[in-house]
Design goal:
By secondary structure, the chain is mostly beta strands. The chain has no helices and 28 strands. Strands 1, 2, 22, 23, 24, 25, 26, 27 and 28 form a nine-stranded antiparallel sheet that branches. It is globular and about 50 Å long.
């Protein structure tokens, strides 16, 4: 499996925290992050040939914590936490030139913390999140309501594992998820499963460890942040830091076996040759990868191809 070639230098775009990024097959890019205590978004476009990114200035979205974003051809959804509840806002009419999105109203997903959202081409949304009062991680499925610009979440999730900071990707009905252990936080785990849009259900399983970040230089107190993306030919791309501030970023390529709920990861990751924290990865079906992270408190973005 080929390596990712990233464009250099990375794009730096002001201060912020906990960025998340999404890209579609038309090379439209949407990012969200925290800025002065509120969630803001940016819209732009990636250039595959030059491996560069153009982003418009940030626009306000809503108050919340740890936002994530997902995108298909003409729909977008942002998930975020507030207190012990998690919410989403969905939108359409994405204008990459003007940098605008027509957003719908806020919708409560469930009780919980640290949500992550994925969106398939047909408008099926998948959320994963941690329990508001425990270590369980849960998934929920909801269809996109184009008329209301909302996701119709069921309001009750299915527990599939335990852990912290779950992140999810979806392509077709196949989903993959990564998270760190709630005890040995330097250990990273994954799950693979499927979604059923008709009955708004999800099934994730496996619970397999794929990396001990101490082998990459993390210490016993590390709190790494993994992220994952998935192509239509079921190639999973995972990006992580080593936790505890800026550290070397690295990625894994893996082939997803949906039937056996496995991902064929290599033994060790590939360095990206940048330092940062809280990375977010996205990929389209044309082999374009985008990564968002913070470096010294500055929002930073990479575009790569494979």
């Amino acid at each position: 499996m080929g390596a990712i070639t990233f464009g250099k230098p990375p794009l730096s775009k002001g201060s912020g925290a906990t960025p998340s990024i999404a890209i579609n097959d038309q090379l439209i890019v949407v990012t969200v992050h925290l800025e002065s205590g509120s969630i803001v978004y940016r819209v732009g476009s990636a250039n595959k040939k030059s491996r560069t990114l153009r982003l418009n200035e940030s626009r306000p979205l809503i108050s919340g914590e740890r936002p994530t974003v997902a995108l298909n051809r003409n729909q977008v959804v942002c998930s975020y936490g507030r207190g012990d509840s998690i919410f989403s806002r969905a939108g359409t009419d994405i204008d990459a030139e003007a940098g605008t999105i027509q957003w719908g109203p806020e919708t409560k997903i469930d009780s919980g913390k640290t949500p992550s959202v994925a969106l398939d081409q047909d408008g099926t949304a998948l959320d994963v999140h941690r329990s508001e009062s425990g270590i369980g991680v849960y998934c929920e499925v909801g269809p996109y309501d184009a008329a209301k610009k909302t996701i119709n979440w069921p309001g009750s999730g299915s527990k599939y594992d335990t852990g912290e900071l779950p992140r999810v990707a979806l392509n077709g009905t196949v989903a993959c998820e990564v998270h760190r252990s709630e005890t040995a936080r330097y250990d990273l785990y994954y799950n693979v499963g499927s979604v059923n849009p008709k009955n708004r259900s999800c099934s994730l399983g496996g619970g397999n460890q794929y990396y001990d970040t101490r082998s990459g230089g993390a210490d016993n107190g590390a709190t790494p942040a993994p992220s994952v993306a998935l192509t239509n030919n079921l190639i999973a791309i995972e990006v992580h830091d080593l936790g505890n501030g800026d550290s070397p970023l690295a990625y894994f390529f893996g082939t997803v076996d949906a039937k056996d709920q496995k991902i064929g990861w290599p033994k060790s990751p590939t360095p990206i040759d940048v330092f940062g924290s809280a990375p977010s990865v996205a990929v389209n079906n044309g082999g374009v990868v985008t990564v968002a992270y913070t470096a010294g408190g500055v929002l930073t973005y990479l575009v790569g191809t494979f």
